[in-house]
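Good morning,

Attaching, inline, the backbone tokens for the sequence recovery test we're adding to the shared suite. The designed sequence is right after.
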């Protein structure tokens, strides 16, 4: 197992509006490193969180995003599967265009409560993390590439989607599967036998299991994510991204969350 994965851990602020996600990525990275007996490649240096607009957050994340892009390219060139533990979904501004360039046939499973398909023209919050998929699909220029075919994007568990964003998703041809329909059978139907690049934002879960900065009720349960993972053929997975675990949350002991993340991940690493 150790030779099959390249473990990449993001430790540079990429639009972090809280301090917990960087710590969460570090702790999960340590646990996964122990599980796989693989030394992690650490990208970026932690800096304090800030509530800033995307136009400020994006240039400040330049070095980290460039590092993540390079790390993913090198992992693929080495014949390994990139396994990324990231702080925010905004880290995928660097990874998704790289994945699309190397695996244009792959379906992106964006397992997230949010569509992350806003643009500078539609965002109300100015949050960079809410604009990631739209950038990767070429709806706006992040400076870190695009090339992802929106018709090969499946948002799993999506339920907190802005009105303008919903229209953009529909117009682009993105498949959005609400929690009530996010079964292994429905996901496999959307994948249709193609390779997959998997992204998980832990806010896809019902709050109370794995803390995330943005909590939305009506989410999936951990065993439902595990069932989706277990249904995917192992040789179909081209990359894995786990994002947005908010360490230090008082509601759920950190150790419990890390164990649950690792337990869920193991359904892909079989």
């Amino acid at each position: 197992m150790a030779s099959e994965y390249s473990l990449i851990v993001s430790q540079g602020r990429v639009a972090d509006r809280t301090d917990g996600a960087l710590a969460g990525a570090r702790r999960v990275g340590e646990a996964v490193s122990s599980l796989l007996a693989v030394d992690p490649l650490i990208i970026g240096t932690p800096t304090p969180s800030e509530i800033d607009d995307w136009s400020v957050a994006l240039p400040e994340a330049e070095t980290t995003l460039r590092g993540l892009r390079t790390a993913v390219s090198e992992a693929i060139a080495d014949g390994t599967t990139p396994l990324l533990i990231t702080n925010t979904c905004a880290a995928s501004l660097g990874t998704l265009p790289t994945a699309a360039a190397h695996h244009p046939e792959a379906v992106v499973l964006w397992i997230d409560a949010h569509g992350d398909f806003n643009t500078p023209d539609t965002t109300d919050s100015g949050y960079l993390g809410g604009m990631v998929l739209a950038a990767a699909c070429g709806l706006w220029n992040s400076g870190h590439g695009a090339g992802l075919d929106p018709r090969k994007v499946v948002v799993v568990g999506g339920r907190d989607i802005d009105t303008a964003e919903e229209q953009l998703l529909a117009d682009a041809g993105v498949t959005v599967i609400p929690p009530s329909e996010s079964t292994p059978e429905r996901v496999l139907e959307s994948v249709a036998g193609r390779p997959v690049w998997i992204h998980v934002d832990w806010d896809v879960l019902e709050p109370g299991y794995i803390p995330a900065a943005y909590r939305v009720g009506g989410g999936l349960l951990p065993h439902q994510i595990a069932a989706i993972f277990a249904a995917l053929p192992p040789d179909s997975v081209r990359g894995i991204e786990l994002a947005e675990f908010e360490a230090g949350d008082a509601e759920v002991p950190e150790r419990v969350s890390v164990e649950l993340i690792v337990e869920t991940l193991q359904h892909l690493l079989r």
